[in-house]
Structure formats: C-alpha cells, structure tokens
Fold:
Amino acid sequence: MKLIVITGPTGVGKTAAAIELAERLQCHIINADSRQVYRGMPIATAAPTPDELARVPHHFVACKELHETYNAWQYEQDVMALLPTLWQQCDTAILCGGSMMYVDAVCNGIDDMPDISPEVRQAVKDQLAEQGLESLIAELELLDPTLAATIDRKNTVRVCHAVEVCRQTGVPYSTLRTGLKKQRPFVIVKIGLNVERPQLFDRINRRVDAMIEAGLEEEAHRLLPLRHLNALNTVGLKEMFAYFDGTMDRTTAIERIKKNTRVYAKKQLTWFRRDPDIHWLTPEELTIKSL
Structure:
C-alpha cells in the first residue's frame, strides 16, 4: 500500500499534476488544503473545478460548512479511517495539497488531543468576538508560556484551539505534545513540486487575475456577512473585505492578494524544505517513472 504525497507552494500546479497522475494510476485523490475542505468559496481557495472533480474521485473537498470547526488532528483521524477503504480498490492513493500541518498530520501523526466540550468552545468563541484575539493571547501567556512564545499569534484558529485545550485539560497544551513520529502501515512517497522563483510568482499573479475574472469579487460579496468565521480568514477574501470596507481601492486589493499569496508560497517552501524525505520535481517531471 502506497500513499503518494504531492505538495509544494501555492500556484505551482499541484492539482493538475495530481489529477493527471491519478488518472494513469486509476486511484483516488485526498485533498490536503485546509481551506478547500469548506463549501462556498471555491474561487478564493482555487478548489478543483467540477470538471476536475469529475475526472478523478476526490475526498475532503467542500465537505464542511463554513461555520464548522476543523483542524489537522481531526483531518488525520478522518484520512486514516478513509485509507483502508481506498486501498480495497487500488493499492495507491494520492494526497495533494499545500497545507503544511495537514500533510504532516497524515505523514507523521499528531498527538492525541482531548475533545473540547461545546461549553469551552463557545466560551472561547465569545471571548474572541467580545475582547479580540489579543485577550486570548494574553490568557495563553498565563496558561502556557512555552507555547505562547512560539505560536503564530496571527493564526486565530491555533490560538483559540490552544486556549481551548488548556481550559479543557487544566494543563499547558505544550505538555501534551510529545513530538514523536507515528509509524504508518504503508509506504509514503513525498513529491514536492516547484519551479524557479520568477516562474512561480508569474504563475501566482496570473492565477489571481484568473480568479478575479472568474468572479472572486462576487464570491467575497456573498461571504461578507460571514467574515467573522475562521474559515474565511484566508488570502483573497481578507483583501476583498478590506476593499469593501474602503480601506484600500480595488486595484490595491488585487495587488495585495498577489503579494500575500507570494509571501505564503515562500513560507510553504521554507517549511517543506526542512523535510529531507521530499523529492523535488517540476510539474512536468512528475510521471509514474519518477515515483
């Protein structure tokens, strides 16, 4: 049994390459993009199109409502439960996406975490709405100074979840993380797709232009009443919301989407290059023979 992981920076062409490979192998694709799991924002998340979804069976695309909470730990559980079913049809499956924590969750595992009660989750959500993210960061500094020193303080989902775990368990979240890699009962082949930096940035810029032409502005207008949801805290929507608020003009918003997407791509590459098991190819080099 084999899991082929296709990852890399946003805009490099992972979806198209994975679909072509899956067609040749006659296997399924498991989405590893943390925003594409949500329904209602296919343009902003560059989700596979209906035609692409029809070519190859996909999993974890548009499977969650925007208000639902979903994280890498839940994703690991769901993927590990799905894989035995997929392997009954084919001894290979493809995991495709650039969400670093989702890829790591499946390949390396995440420490088991306690279930968060609805009361604790709602209390944290209410505090975020009433007092802002800074109040939760301040609480995390008291409850778990070790984690507070390293956590991405702009990542609302991670800060909220860390506070939830601390409240639920009564102990620092960092004490529950072992950092031990889980052994998987299948072969993992990791492929990182990348191109030269100028070509990657050009692809990103052109993809944003295509998203605007496809109706990103209209999609963002429709989602504006839901902007408080964590699922909508994503590049493409945030800049459009700022445009609607009047804090930047339309041209600036579009250019900012391009810039922020390029910054995210560089962040992804920095993360993935720490992994010596990733074999780097261009999209054109990805063939069955290259695996």
User: Anything to note?
Assistant: Residues 250-272 form the longest helix (23 residues). The domain at 2-110+181-290 is CATH 3.40.50.300 (Rossmann fold).
